[in-house]
Backbone:
C-alpha cells in the first residue's frame, strides 16, 4: 500500500507542478532579457480557453495545444508592441494584460463552460515504467515531459550557447548590448514571445490535462505563483524546477495532511504552500552575491535606442 | 460579464429616464449566481430553474441574471445594480449572499428578495432551501454498500451548517449499513476551483477512499474517479456526461417549479416573505438516474427514498451521538429543523476536526 500511495502522491505533485513550471520557465526567459511581464495569468487564461476550444471543435489534442501556444504568443505580442515599440510602462501594461486576458477568455469561453473534455493518456515507456516508485517518472503525460525538456533546453541555451549570452547581456545592460551591435528590441521581443508560448502551454495543461474542462478564471492565480517562482529561483532554470515541485508538493501534501486528520486547522494548511515559498525565498536571498550575479540588472527598464 | 454590462446599461437608461415607459408591462425577475451560469453544477441548477420560469410564464416575465459573483462586497454591489435596473423579484442563490441581500433589501423595500440556503429574513426577504441531507443519506447508504475499503472521501468548501449537515447525514446513512464506515474530509476553502477539487480527490483516493462525494460545485472530482476506475456522486446537478462510468447518482436540485410558483405569486400579488424548506417529497431535489450499481442496491435506494418521502424515515432520527459520545437526541425522536440549521458538530465516527 505504501509504495503505491507514495507513487500516487508523487504523480499528483508532478501534475500540480507542471503548469507552474511551464509558466515560470517562460517568464524566466522574458525576465532574463530585461522585460517584466506581469501578464502571465492573462496569457494562461487565454491559452486555457483557446486550447480547450480548438481541441473540442476539431477533436484534435495536438491542434488544441498549438492553438494555446498561438493564443499565448498573440497576447505576448500585444504586450511586446506596447512596451518595446511604444515604450509603455511594463508593470502597468502587464497588469492590464492579465485583466484583459481573464475577461476576454471568459467571453470566448462562454459556449464551452460545462462541456466535458476528453483528457490525455499518459505515455508509458516499457520496462522502465515497471520499476517500483521511480517507474512513475516513465509514465507521465507528454506535456510534463515537454515542460521538463523545455527547462533543460533553456538552461543549456542560457549558459552554453552564444544566443543565451546575448539574451543575458541584453537583460543586464541594454545600452552595452546595443553598443556591441545587438538588436535589443528584437531579442527582447523574441523572449517575450517565448514567454507567451510557455504561458499558453501552461493554460492548455490546465484545461486539457489537469481537469479536462473550461471554466472562467480556472487558472486561479497560478500565473502569479509562477511569477513568484522566477524570483524565488533567482532566475536559474534548475531552481525553477525545484520551486515548482516544492510549491506543488506542499499544496498536495496539505490535502493529504487533512485527509489523514492531523488536527491542524485546514485554513492554516491551505496557506502553507504560500508560506513555505516565502520562507524559502527569504533563505535563498541571503546569498547576496549569487542573487546579484543572476538578477537581470536592466529588469523592467525600457530601452530607447539613440538615433 | 455580458449580463453585468446589460444591467449597467439599464442603470444608465433608467438614470436618464429612457425606457421606463414600458418597464411595467412585464415582471422583471432576476437571479444572482456564485459561479458561471453553465458550470455543470450548482449554479446551472438555478439557471435551469430560471429558464423554466421563462418558458412557463412566457410574455408575462422578463428574466436576467448575473453570474460568477464573489461572496462579500461584490455581491452587495451586484444586488444593488439588479435592484436599480428594475428587477421586481431577485433570487440570490448562495449562502454567502445572505448579509448583502438583507442590506440591499433594506434600501429597496419595494423589491422582493429570495435568498437560497440562508436563515435571515426581512419583510421583503424570504428564504428557500432544499433538504439536501435527504439525498445525502441515500448516497451514504449506497457508498457503504459499494465501498470495498469502507472509506469514502468527502471534499468540502466551508464549515457552514448546510455543509456539516450534509457530512453528518451521509455518515448516518453509511452507518445504517456499515457501523464501522469511515469518512475522510478535505476542506478546499472554495466552492469552485476545478484543479484544487481534482487534487483533493486524488489525495483522498491515494489514502484509500474508493468512493468520492463532495460539497463543491465542479465535476472535476468525478472525472478523477472515472480516470481511476472508482465511483462517486454528482453534486447539485446531474454530472453523468462528465463521468458516465463513475457516477452512481447525483443529488439534483430542481428549483424550477419553486421559481415558477414564487414568480406567479408576485404576478398575482400574493407574495410574502416566507421560510421554505422543501424536501424530496416536494420535488425540489431529485436523485438522478442510478448507474453503475447492482439492481438490489438501486432497489434499496429507492425504498429509502420512498420512506423519507412518506415521512416514516428521518435521516436524523435518534439516537444520535456527537464525536465525543454525548447524546444529542434519544431513541424514537428526530432532530428538529432549528438544530439542523445551526449544526456545528460532527456525529460520532467522523475522523476530522471541524474548522472553526
Residues:
Amino acid at each position: 500500500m505504501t509504495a503505491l500511495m507514495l507513487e500516487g502522491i508523487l504523480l499528483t505533485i508532478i501534475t500540480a507542478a507542471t503548469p507552474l513550471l511551464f509558466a515560470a520557465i517562460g517568464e524566466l526567459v522574458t525576465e532574463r532579457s530585461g522585460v517584466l511581464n506581469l501578464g502571465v495569468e492573462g496569457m494562461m487564461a487565454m491559452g486555457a480557453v483557446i486550447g480547450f476550444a480548438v481541441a473540442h471543435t476539431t477533436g484534435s489534442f495536438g491542434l488544441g495545444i498549438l492553438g494555446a501556444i498561438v493564443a499565448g504568443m498573440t497576447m505576448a505580442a500585444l504586450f511586446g508592441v506596447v512596451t518595446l515599440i511604444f515604450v509603455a510602462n511594463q508593470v502597468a501594461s502587464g497588469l492590464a494584460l492579465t485583466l484583459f486576458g481573464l475577461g476576454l477568455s471568459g467571453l470566448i469561453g462562454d459556449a464551452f463552460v460545462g462541456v466535458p473534455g476528453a483528457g490525455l493518456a499518459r505515455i508509458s515507456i516499457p520496462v522502465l515504467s515497471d520499476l517500483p516508485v521511480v517507474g512513475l517518472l516513465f509514465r507521465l503525460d507528454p506535456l510534463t515531459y515537454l515542460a521538463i525538456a523545455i527547462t533543460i533546453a533553456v538552461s543549456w541555451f542560457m549558459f552554453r550557447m552564444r544566443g543565451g549570452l546575448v539574451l543575458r547581456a541584453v537583460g543586464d545592460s541594454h545600452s552595452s548590448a546595443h553598443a556591441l551591435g545587438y538588436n535589443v528590441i528584437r531579442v527582447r521581443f523574441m523572449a517575450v514571445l517565448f514567454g507567451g508560448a510557455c504561458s499558453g502551454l501552461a493554460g492548455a495543461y490546465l484545461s486539457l490535462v489537469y481537469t479536462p474542462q473550461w471554466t472562467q478564471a480556472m487558472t486561479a492565480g497560478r500565473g502569479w505563483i509562477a511569477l513568484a517562482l522566477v524570483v524565488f529561483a533567482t532566475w536559474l532554470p534548475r531552481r525553477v524546477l525545484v520551486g515548482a515541485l516544492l510549491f506543488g508538493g506542499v499544496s498536495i501534501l496539505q490535502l493529504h495532511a487533512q485527509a489523514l486528520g492531523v488536527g491542524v486547522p485546514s485554513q492554516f494548511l491551505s496557506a502553507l504552500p504560500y508560506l513555505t515559498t516565502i520562507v524559502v525565498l527569504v533563505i535563498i536571498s541571503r546569498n547576496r552575491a549569487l542573487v546579484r550575479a543572476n538578477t537581470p540588472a536592466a529588469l523592467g527598464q525600457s530601452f530607447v535606442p539613440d538615433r | 460579464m455580458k449580463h453585468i454590462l446589460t444591467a449597467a446599461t439599464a442603470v444608465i437608461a433608467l438614470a436618464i429616464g429612457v425606457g421606463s415607459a414600458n418597464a411595467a408591462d412585464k415582471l422583471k425577475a432576476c437571479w444572482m449566481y456564485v459561479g458561471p451560469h453553465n458550470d455543470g453544477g450548482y449554479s446551472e441548477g438555478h439557471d435551469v430553474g430560471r429558464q423554466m420560469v421563462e418558458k412557463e410564464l412566457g410574455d408575462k416575465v422578463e428574466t436576467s441574471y448575473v453570474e460568477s459573483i464573489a461572496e462579500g462586497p461584490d455581491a452587495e454591489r451586484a444586488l444593488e445594480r439588479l435592484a436599480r435596473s428594475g428587477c421586481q423579484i431577485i433570487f440570490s442563490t448562495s449562502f454567502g449572499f445572505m448579509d448583502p441581500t438583507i442590506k440591499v433589501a433594506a434600501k429597496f423595500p419595494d423589491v422582493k428578495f429570495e435568498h437560497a440556503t440562508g436563515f435571515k429574513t426581512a419583510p421583503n426577504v424570504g428564504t428557500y432551501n432544499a433538504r439536501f441531507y435527504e439525498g445525502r443519506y441515500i448516497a451514504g447508504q449506497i457508498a457503504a454498500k459499494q465501498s470495498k475499503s469502507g472509506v469514502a472521501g468527502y471534499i468540502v468548501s466551508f464549515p457552514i451548517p448546510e455543509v456539516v449537515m450534509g457530512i453528518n447525514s451521509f455518515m448516518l446513512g453509511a452507518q445504517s449499513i456499515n457501523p464501522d464506515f469511515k469518512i475522510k474530509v478535505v476542506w478546499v476553502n472554495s466552492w469552485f476551483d476545478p484543479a484544487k477539487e481534482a487534487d483533493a480527490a486524488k489525495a483522498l483516493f491515494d489514502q484509500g477512499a474508493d468512493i468520492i462525494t463532495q460539497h463543491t460545485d465542479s465535476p472535476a472530482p468525478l472525472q478523477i474517479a472515472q480516470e481511476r476506475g472508482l465511483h462517486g456522486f454528482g453534486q447539485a446537478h446531474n454530472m453523468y456526461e462528465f463521468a458516465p462510468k463513475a457516477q452512481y447518482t447525483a443529488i439534483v436540485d430542481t428549483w424550477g417549479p419553486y421559481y415558477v410558483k414564487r414568480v406567479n405569486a408576485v404576478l398575482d400579488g400574493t407574495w410574502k416573505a416566507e421560510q421554505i424548506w422543501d424536501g424530496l417529497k416536494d420535488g425540489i431535489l431529485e436523485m438522478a438516474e442510478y448507474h453503475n450499481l447492482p439492481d438490489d442496491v438501486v432497489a434499496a435506494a429507492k425504498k429509502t427514498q420512498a420512506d423519507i418521502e412518506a415521512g416514516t424515515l428521518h435521516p436524523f432520527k435518534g439516537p444520535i451521538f456527537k464525536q465525543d459520545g454525548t447524546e444529542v437526541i434519544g431513541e424514537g425522536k428526530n432532530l428538529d429543523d432549528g438544530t439542523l440549521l445551526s449544526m456545528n458538530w460532527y456525529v460520532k465516527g467522523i475522523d476530522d476536526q471541524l474548522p472553526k
About this structure: Chain B has two domains: 2-130, 132-252+284-341.
